[in-house]
Amino acid sequence: MRRRDLLTLLCGAAASSVLRPRAACAEPAGRVRHIGVLLNLAAEDPETEARRAAFLDALQQLGWRDGDNLRIDYRWGIGDLDRHRTNADELVALAPEVILAHGSTIMGPLQRATRTIPIVFVSVADPVSGGFVASLSRPGGNATGFTSSDYAMSGKLLELLKQIAPQVTRVGVIRDPGQVSGGGQIGAIQAVAPLFGVEVSPLGVRDASEIEGAVSGFARQPNGGLIVTTSALAQIQRELIVTLADRHRLPAVYPYRLFVGSGGLMSHGPSVTDQYRRAAGYVDRILKGEKAADLPVQQPNKFELVINLKTAKALGLEVPAVMLARADEVIE
Question: Domain 3-149+271-302 adopts which CATH fold?
Answer without folding.
Answer: Rossmann fold (3.40.50)
